[in-house]
Amino acid sequence: MHAIFAIEPEAINNWQDLRYALEKFGYSKGLLIVRYPKTWMRLVMEACRRRGLGDVELKRIEEKLQNAKDDRLVRIGLAFEGASWLESVSAEAVLNQISAVLVRDQIVSDKFHRIDDAHENLFDNRREVRVKRNANALAESAKYVLTASDHFVLVDPYFQSRRKCTKVLDGMLRICRENDAIPNQVIIFSDHSKDSRSLAVVKHEYEEHLRAWIERGVNITICRVASDQLEQDFHARYLFNQKAGLRFDRGFVEPEDHNEREHETDVICMDTAFSNELYARFIEARESIDIVDEIML
What band does 232 get if pLDDT is binned at 50, 70 and 90? Predict the structure, then answer.
């Protein structure tokens, strides 16, 4: 769901333009900047030096870039093969994976926008999307949050060991594998009261459906929580890590009815503060949660 922008290093070769550009982006805003090429941050600094900026301003820009690295810059493996940045980013294979390109001057396609006169609408309405309720679409919408960390957390009272749920998790892990970002750990919080079957039966079913990922070394923990404390926490379903989070209004379930899979649901970028709050509660203060039982795969 996140829109990916490329920014020409020469377009942000000073503090004012760099700050203006970077403040438009972030996981919580649904907007990310691709590190294109992987040395993009270094290219920005070189452009600033060519501009003749002083040491104080260069230091400030370097710190701003470092701070942005974790919450708005991503790598997506785009080929850099032209004689220049502009030539490389103009390649069809690159442009097909980018929502927009911010440049200093040269406009070579309708995806290019001059940084000085880019319309604010270009950055609006990126926090929320509607996606089909099939496993692939649900997983794909979370691609950049899933691959932002070495672990992620799902909170969904209705998540169960049944195939309709584990198929969505399988889709998410495949997205991670395809992007060379298989997580070390996945933690799931669900409502114990929603499934009356024995712990042994539930664990066996999880193992059957997720065996391929367990054998790959992904540690999967399912915490089944007492329902009397979930009314406040489980109004919606969440996917998050220590960097970002998404709210899935209909949860992590692929309907068994094929027609219902064509129906759409909302996926929304969570504010950074709320994402941090969830992470603190469910991970950093997990001992305060009344967990009925815990399944470790």
Answer: low
Residues 6+ apart with CB under 8 A from 285: none
pLDDT digit string (tens) for 38-86? Answer: 999 999 999 999 999 999 999 999 999 999 988 899 988 899 988 899 9
How far apart CA 290 and CA 223 sit, in angstroms, is: 10
DSSP codes of every residue in 91-114: SHHHHTT-SEEEESS---STTEEE
Task: List the domain boundaries for the chain.
Answer: 3-123, 128-296
CA distances from 72 to 30, 75, 207, 288 (A): 9, 10, 35, 32
CATH topology for 128-296 is: Endonuclease; Chain A (3.30.870)
**Whether the Cβ atoms of residue 281 and residue 13 lie closer than 8 Å to each other:** no
* pTM as predicted: 0.88
37 prior amide bond cis, ω within 30: yes
